[in-house]
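User: Hi! I'm working on a homework problem where we have to compare a predicted structure to a textbook description. Could you give me the structure for the chain below?
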Amino acid sequence: MSTPLPTSDASVAYLDYAELVELYAQRLVTNLRGFGVDDPTLALWVPDEDPTRSVRNLLDAAATAGRGALGLRIRRPQLDAIDVVVLETLLARYGAPAIEARAEELCFVVSGLRLPEPVDASVARLESPSAAQSSWATTASPADASVVQVESPRLGRCTVTVETLDRPRVDEFPSRLRNPYRNALTQRVPNARFHTLPEARPQLRRGVAVLHGVSLAFLVDGQDRVTRAGFEGAPHADAQRLMEALCEVCEGMPLPEVRDHAVQRLESSLRGAGPRPCSGIVLPESIDAAFAVLQHLVREAAVAAGYQTGTSNRYDAGPSAQWASRSDESRRGTLETAIRDFCGEQGLGEHAIAFVDLQFLIRLVVVPAPTIERAALPGLLMALERYCRGRVESRLEVFVEEHRDRNAKRRLAVVPQERAGKS
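Assistant: Happy to help. Predicted structure tokens:
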């Protein structure tokens, strides 16, 4: 996986980026834990869909572990998604970089590896050129980004887009919501039922929160469930639609779940099957300032309605009543059809992924054909899960069939050892 890097320091070897990513993807399927490479100095690394961010994560992991130098080779097609100027600026923050560009690959080594100094106000964008053209990047307001001049060791003086990394400040209700959320809201049917604050009722607790002239109120019953939600003071049409959608999400859910995840559920429902706005966990308040306003209102209204800090939240909506009421044969037939249609849309054979079992009404167990490449399997299974959730049942979870040790003596011999270790 590593070979000597053609630099002045012949002792430094460089890693192949494509092989690192492929190994990580394989171990997601075959390993219970420890998905990365065996090198302990890279144990904290997690790849990213954006190669530049993935390189940054690799540098962070190596520098955190105290590694002195890191060499990496990036080949096409990953190289096509990298802005070389941004990459050079990034490498310079972690140490002394030496870069060699070739026709089909780029090799670099960073010596004197260290964690970078914090950036006070902004940092060069780390998106790929394709990501910069997506709807997520182009919807940023002019205040979110600017253009500065940087000195590139190889290309000279260049312009680089810079954007602030601060979370949206909750100083007003934004005048316009970003896409795709705004497009999703305009397609909703208006519901004037939520446009007034619910009045206090016997045996129900009432909580009200106000921010920037917008009020949100909950009525909560004795089982800590939000029975009624409403708002007033939304400054414009986008805010009205957003508050309507929020109230619709909140009604019927336990107060702790509303407080913890109502805004996350709203963001996910509005985004639908579209691309994720960022890697990892999506925090709505970091995506759009409007969600930050909603988060504040929800949490304040929940406290006013009696939410106690530290309350345990174990809410699970479970499968829908319609899905639970169907027979086993009906559910199996629907899932087999959905899997077969998914495989057809993906250009795979009809039997590339086979149905095995449906456990607890939501756990869909499948077995992939051996012809499917291991590196492609994790992404394929995630796509299948999204497909089945959108077409069949929103609570479905996809699992690969477990392969147990066929040697009964060896398998049973492990049990006493495991129990002894736990005792």
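For your comparison, note the following. The two ends are 41 Å apart (CA to CA). DSSP finds 14 helices and 14 strands in the chain. Good luck with the assignment!
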